[in-house]
Amino acid sequence: MQALLPTRSTLPLFDVAASRRIEARALAHSPDLMERAGLAVAKLALALRRGEGPIWIACGPGNNGGDGRVAARRLSEIGLPVHVGHTAPPQPSLVIDALLGLGLNRPPDAALQTTIAAMQTCGATILAVDLPSGLLADTGQAAGGAAVRADHTLALLTLKPGLFTGEGRGYGGQLWFDDLGITPDEVASADLLGPSPLPQRNPTSHKGSHGQVLIVGGAPGMQGAARLAARAALACGAGRVYVDLLGLPATEPADPGQPELMRGRLADLPQAVGVVGCGAGPTIADALPALLREAPKLVIDADALNAIAADDELQTLVRARTAGSTLLTPHPLEAARLLGCDTSAVQADRLAAASELARRLACTVVLKGSGSIIASPGERPAICASGGPALATAGSGDVLAGWLGGLWAQQPGASGHAIACAGVDAHGRAGEAGGVLRAGDLIERLAARR
Ligand SMILES: NC(=O)C1=CN([C@@H]2O[C@H](COP(=O)(O)OP(=O)(O)OC[C@H]3O[C@@H](n4cnc5c(N)ncnc54)[C@H](O)[C@@H]3O)[C@@H](O)[C@H]2O)[C@@H](O)CC1
């Protein structure tokens, strides 16, 4: 058993169907899986229990409840007070939620919701077995809006995507994992991202060795967004960073507070990685056809995404680009506009939404939000487990776009998918802080890890 986050390497995630197949094959040669699962739960319960009161174990009708009953027996065997039932005992020292796991197939009914509410209000730490009851393992949504908000979740046998994206991080609490001694014999449904190595700098290199980035955006009144993206690309190590500030005379400095940045235009920088859309406003639609036809690599964000969503011809140009050369970074509302649906439909199944958008536009998609998804045609989707609420601040998306552009400039041979995985994870890890991070601080934290 191990605490899971932050991840030290990329880990495989298995959806319900794949987990079922792994479980069925494992049971053929290891019929004691439930014993192992219950023992793992009992061990973690021992470590988490606070006080002398009974450990309350709420068991459901299936094997998730079976795990709970094994844990109850194990804990009783060592003399601990245990209460198995759907109502709270006085002053429990821990709650074990073993109501529903992988087998959830409908929203919890009123009786179950009453038990969930009792768990939530009894004041003890909640340990969920495999999944918080009510949380859908594939999507990270609460079925019918009702699920246990656990303090800890011990995932068993496999890690499920729903623990890491959508609302999953909010329901799972601190995550633990026990593979029950089984090596999965299935292709993973998705990857949980681990850290990627940063581009190496050769001792004999010069600024020309580290590529060029061209930021296109920053309409009047919104230049800060383009400048944040530019500063992030510079901090990432791009050799030269240029800014095309829409509507600002070319004689004006790119960024008075960052003299390393230069003004530039697509026509003069045919090799630069384009980062397009940060604070761009609707006029970006005029610049997009040339950028989509000519820029060798593009990171497309914000207003550029909205322009593409509103224009079939721009969508055709996106699809016509070389495979692996285009990276879109929508938040859920932008993704919904591109897909022609509403935000709740995107959030209901983030993996599916990102994969569908990647398929439709033939490019890499970073669907931002808790548990960002990276999806590309022909690649296994990835979920970013790093990051947190400190990133929910103005400008953090501009910093991500710039950082991705900076990474790509230094690794021109990498696909959009590889750049997105590396950059999104680095951005998330740098954003793991208490309170709120200003976007400028986020750049400093990213640079410090460089
Ligand atoms: N089979 C085994 O040996 C193992 C089982 N494991 C455990 O088994 C779990 C999966 O077991 P199951 O497939 O039995 O599924 P669950 O125990 O999650 O639930 C299935 C049962 O709950 C009912 N149900 C579903 N949604 C409900 C709702 N909203 N309200 C009320 N009842 C509802 C179903 O009709 C079914 O009877 C995993 O999550 C894990 O905890 C793991 O420990 C691995 C080993």
Automatic annotation (TrEMBL):
Pfam families (UniProt xref): Carb_kinase, YjeF_N
Q: Sum up the protein's function in the record's words.
A: Bifunctional enzyme that catalyzes the epimerization of the S- and R-forms of NAD(P)HX and the dehydration of the S-form of NAD(P)HX at the expense of ADP, which is converted to AMP. This allows the repair of both epimers of NAD(P)HX, a damaged form of NAD(P)H that is a result of enzymatic or heat-dependent hydration. Catalyzes the dehydration of the S-form of NAD(P)HX at the expense of ADP, which is converted to AMP. Together with NAD(P)HX epimerase, which catalyzes the epimerization of the S- and R-forms, the enzyme allows the repair of both epimers of NAD(P)HX, a damaged form of NAD(P)H that is a result of enzymatic or heat-dependent hydration.
Annotated cofactor note: Binds 1 potassium ion per subunit.
Q: Where does (6S)-NADPHX bind?
A: 63-67, 101-107, 130, 225, 277, 331, 398
| Ligand binding (AMP) | 368-372, 397
Q: Which residues form a coiled coil?
A: none
Print the keywords alphabetically: ATP-binding, Isomerase, Lyase, Metal-binding, Multifunctional enzyme, NAD, NADP, Nucleotide-binding, Potassium
Residues at which K(+) binds: 64, 97, 133
Enzyme Commission number(s) of this protein: 4.2.1.136, 5.1.99.6
Q: Where do the YjeF C-terminal domain residues begin and end?
A: 190-450
Its domain of life reads Bacteria
> Could you tell me which species this protein originates from?
Pelomonas nitida
Q: What is this protein called?
A: Bifunctional NAD(P)H-hydrate repair enzyme
Which family is this protein grouped under? In the N-terminal section; belongs to the NnrE/AIBP family.
User: Do you know which PROSITE patterns this protein is assigned to?
Assistant: YJEF_C_2 (PS01050), YJEF_C_3 (PS51383), YJEF_N (PS51385)
- Subunit (UniProt): Homotetramer.
Please list the residue ranges annotated as the YjeF N-terminal domain: 19-188
Catalytic activity annotated for this protein?
(6R)-NADHX = (6S)-NADHX; (6R)-NADPHX = (6S)-NADPHX; (6S)-NADHX + ADP = AMP + phosphate + NADH + H(+); (6S)-NADPHX + ADP = AMP + phosphate + NADPH + H(+)
- List the PANTHER family: ATP-DEPENDENT (S)-NAD(P)H-HYDRATE DEHYDRATASE (PTHR12592:SF0), ATP-DEPENDENT (S)-NAD(P)H-HYDRATE DEHYDRATASE FAMILY MEMBER (PTHR12592)
Task: List, separated by semicolons, the cofactors it needs.
Answer: Mg(2+); K(+)
